[in-house]
Amino acid sequence: MRRRPPGGPPGIMARMGMRTGTRTGAGPERQGPMWAAGEAYEPYVGRWSRLVAARFVRRLDAAPGGSWRDVGCGTGAVTQAVLDAAEPADVIGVDPSQDYLAYARRHVADRRARFLRADAEHLPFTGSSASAVVSGLVLNFVPDPARAAAEMVRVVRPGRLVGVYLWDYGEGGMEAIRAFWDAATALDPGARALDEAVRFPLCTRAALGGLLAGAGLRDVRTEETRVPTPFRDFADYWTPFLGGQGPAPAYLAGLPEDHRARLRERLRAALPRAADGTIALHARAWAARGRRAA
Ligand SMILES: C[S@@+](CC[C@H](N)C(=O)[O-])C[C@H]1O[C@@H](n2cnc3c(N)ncnc32)[C@H](O)[C@@H]1O
């Protein structure tokens, strides 16, 4: 195969609006092209995000009632978990993606939920009115996570919770995406610069806890959440990567057809398949929470 310069196949970075060497690698997400189809996000990550969200909200053990915020709510996974488990008075989800917000409005059938278009770095709330602020799988996509964390602290009431979680993209973490980048990099070493484990150093227990402590939260605690991510067969694993939602699918969309086919076959051979064709993977997320000083 023709060698490519570090930083990825020619043209792909530009097509993705991606810059290398940025602090968070959040270039393409800011422009939002990969967060443009809620229907495609759900089978890719939404179905697993919902499992983590449910456990995360239950473990927060927040007092019932109150007004919650879900930052980077996307298609509504965390908002729905809050509605299901926390008995909130209301939840306001914010996200820059119009399409994801539209999906959330269609699917979160609860009068207590509202969705607004906004950026995590500029939350559209004056004063400290929230009883709890949560955010799932978002902060690594925000250009300035420290600013987003400061915003979450600003809008939460004194003494109340801010809680966040992110995938662990490394070995033993979000295995479906880890397997993708391992195969992609084996075929094209330049893809390593796009690997989420490389681009997102925030996605570790220590870094996430440090972010919240650095934002001034007290009693910061971190924990692991591990969920099964079972795939019925290889098509159930592969097809959602074709939907363009998130860094790995965006990379895939920019590949020539023959390269995409080689990557598919490499993954088909590499993934551990049971006799009945099922693929039993797992995903680990790191969660962190803290309280604003009373
Ligand atoms: C992986 S999805 C997570 C969505 C949802 N929270 C979940 O758990 O399924 C990442 C989300 O971050 C949102 N996002 C990207 N950049 C953002 C920013 N600067 N501020 C707020 N949200 C952002 C995207 O629009 C997308 O909905």
TrEMBL record:
Low complexity compositional bias, start-end: 11-27
MF terms in GO: methyltransferase activity
Annotated region described as Disordered, given as residue ranges: 1-34
CDD domains: AdoMet_MTases
Residue ranges of domain Methyltransferase type in the record: 70-159
Keywords for the protein's UniProt record, in alphabetical order: Methyltransferase, Transferase
GO BP terms: methylation
One matching Pfam family: Methyltransf_11
PANTHER family noted in UniProt: METHYLTRANSFERASE (PTHR43591)
Protein name: Class I SAM-dependent methyltransferase
Annotated source species: Streptomyces polychromogenes
